[in-house]
Amino acid sequence: MEIKDFSYYFDLSRFAHKSLFERCGYIFDFLKFLPEYLEKNLKPATEGVVMPGAFVGEKVFLGKGTVVQPGAWIMGPAIIGENCEIRHGAFVGANVIAGNNVVIGHASEVGNSVFLDGARAPHFAFVGHSILGNKVNLGAGTKISNFKVTGSEVVIAGVKTGLEKFGVIIGDDSSLGCNTVTQPATFLGKKVYCYPNMLLRGFVPSETILKLRQEQEQDRVR
Fold it and tell me: How many other CB atoms are there within 10 angstroms of residue 138's CB atom?
């Protein structure tokens, strides 16, 4: 399992906020530095469009070309890049960074997370305490579990994280099928493709297809 090298999961060369990760000894350390990074670098402004019926908090930056649709709620602190879509019914909570061309869609909730450029959570998703790589797509209904049922500290490969909440790391160009659920502290490499209705855990190396096989039986109505 790779838990230190960001380059295994992401191409950060064009990401506007790559300095967030420079002090991280482990990948999950971004959660410790994210609030501080936002406090130092967030300059609230609205360069995009906030449609009537949307709510945008005081500690939010919206980039050019970004549209916040009616019924969306951005609490902040948050930095939303250029040409993003925050769709109807989306909820963006605290400590969120979204790069350019990001989609946070209808009934999707995001908090304490980083979306790299082109990442998409377009329909009925929950993303908490996580990083989505460049051009990652979450199928409708994807749920990122970020809290163990026991409430105990997250331990990864024998390393104590000091965290009670940690979701998923999803590498660039990966795609999860509809209704996928990831357990806390799941790591997916680049170009991981997952069939729908799967439960993921642990480490999945880059360039992997995860397949779920089901048997169906047909019978006559009597």
Answer: 31
Kindly give, in sequence order, each residue whose CB lies less than 8 Å from that of residue 16, ignoring residues fewer than 6 positions away: 81, 99, 100
Percent of the chain clearing pLDDT 90 (strictly above): 98
Rounded CA separation 58/45 (Å): 9
Q: Phi and psi of 21, rounded to 5°?
A: -95, -5
Total-model pTM? 0.96
Closest CA to 156 of 203, 208, 222: 203
| Rounded distance between C-alpha atoms, residue 222 and residue 208, angstroms | 44
pLDDT tens figures, 92-143: 999 999 999 999 999 999 999 999 999 999 999 999 999 999 999 999 999 9
The CATH number given to 6-210 is: 2.160.10.10
Show the tokens assigned to 217.
């039986």
Q: Using alpha carbons only, how large is the chain's radius of gyration in Å?
A: 18
Pairwise CA distance, residues 33 & 170, whole Å: 19
